[in-house]
């Protein structure tokens, strides 16, 4: 199913995600913001998910690496959704509940807990599916996808340990995004803060729509309609990095401003040095 064209889009998507991270991480004022830290971790997990998905698409159902790669794809996409949930919750607490202490005295400890949760909790789903499948040979963890996608997760495990958790996250994120939008419309903010918050909300809503739609399509990647939905799923999945780059770089003026200041400071230092 993963054609040469979609492989090219996947690689472009991965490269753009890495470029986005490279543009944020060198600037201290950007990388020190709690929401940016979380978004960068979400990007990292998405890059790992896309790389493993691309590698998985080259494997045959009978390959010895098949089960391990399915496990990795299963895990990394759940980690990505876990970080998207943390991003939505963090933004919700800062805007709706007006909790501004985060990022001042407890940010390192809170961020450490987020890391532990987002990188460990998702492993429960693929691990439990794999272990249960090994004790029940009639329901294997991996399955041949109608001869089209040689190595993929069994529909049973995909539904209950992949799609269902993701839909729960999408539902929670949708509720939080709506609450944030309502409060922002009802609250007076200075122009700079309001514009910044609006951009973050747009990013959350766009990513929520993109992730939610792509993983909803995964529900229909088996059966008579499988081929059409497989292509749609892969098209949306492989283009996620492109949308993220557009949302996080060209559409965020604060990034442009920080880089202009960074380059200006370096230019002054280089000219003043003997």
Your description of this structure?
There is one protein chain. Helix 1 (4-24) runs parallel beside helix 9 (226-238), helix 1 (4-24) runs parallel beside helix 10 and helix 4 (66-95) runs antiparallel to helix 5. Mean pLDDT is 79; it is low at 99-106. The protein has eleven helices and two strands. It has helices at residues 4-24, 28-31, 34-56, 66-95, 107-120, 124-135, 155-186, 191-217, 226-238, 240-248, 253-272; strands at residues 142-145, 149-153. Strands 1-2 form a two-stranded antiparallel ribbon. The protein has 274 residues and is mainly alpha-helical. The radius of gyration is 20 Å and the shape is globular. Strand 1 and strand 2 (149-153) form a beta hairpin. 75% of the residues lie in helices and 3% in strands. The termini are far apart.
Describe the structure in brief.
Helices cover 75% and strands 3% of the residues.
Keywords summarizing the entry:
2 strands, 274 residues, two-stranded antiparallel ribbon
Strand order of the largest sheet: 1-2
Q: What oligomerization state is this entry in? A: single chain
Number of helices, where a helix is a run of at least 4 consecutive DSSP H or I residues: 11
Radius of gyration equals 20 Å
**CA-to-CA gap between the ends?**
59 Å
Q: What is the molecular shape?
A: globular
Q: Helical residue percent?
A: over 70%
Question: For the residues shown, what is the average pLDDT?
Answer: 79
Strand content: under 5%
SSE succession: HHHHHHEEHHHHH
């Amino acid at each position: 199913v993963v054609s040469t064209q979609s492989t090219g889009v996947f690689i472009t998507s991965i490269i753009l995600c890495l470029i986005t991270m490279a543009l944020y991480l060198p600037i201290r004022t950007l990388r020190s913001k709690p929401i940016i830290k979380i978004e960068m971790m979400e990007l990292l997990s998405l890059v790992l998910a896309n790389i493993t998905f691309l590698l998985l698409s080259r494997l045959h159902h009978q390959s010895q690496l098949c089960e391990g790669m399915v496990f990795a794809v299963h895990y990394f996409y759940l980690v990505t959704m876990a970080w998207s949930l943390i991003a939505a919750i963090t933004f919700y607490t800062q805007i709706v509940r007006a909790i501004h202490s985060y990022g001042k005295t407890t940010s390192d400890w809170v961020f450490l807990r987020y890391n532990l949760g987002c990188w460990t909790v998702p492993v429960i789903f693929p691990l439990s599916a794999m272990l249960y499948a090994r004790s029940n040979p009639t329901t294997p963890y991996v399955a041949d996808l109608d001869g089209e996608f040689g190595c993929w997760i069994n529909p049973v495990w995909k539904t209950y340990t992949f799609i269902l958790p993701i839909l729960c996250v999408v539902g929670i994120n949708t509720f939080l995004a709506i609450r944030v939008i309502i409060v922002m419309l009802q609250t007076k903010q200075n122009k700079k803060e309001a514009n910044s918050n609006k951009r973050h909300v747009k990013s959350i809503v766009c990513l929520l729509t993109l992730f939610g739609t792509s993983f909803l399509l995964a529900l229909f990647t088996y059966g008579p309609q499988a081929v059409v939905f497989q292509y749609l799923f892969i098209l949306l999945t492989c283009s996620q990095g492109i949308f993220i780059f557009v949302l996080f770089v060209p559409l965020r003026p604060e990034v442009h401003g920080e880089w202009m200041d960074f380059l200006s400071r370096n230019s002054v230092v280089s000219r003043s040095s003997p």
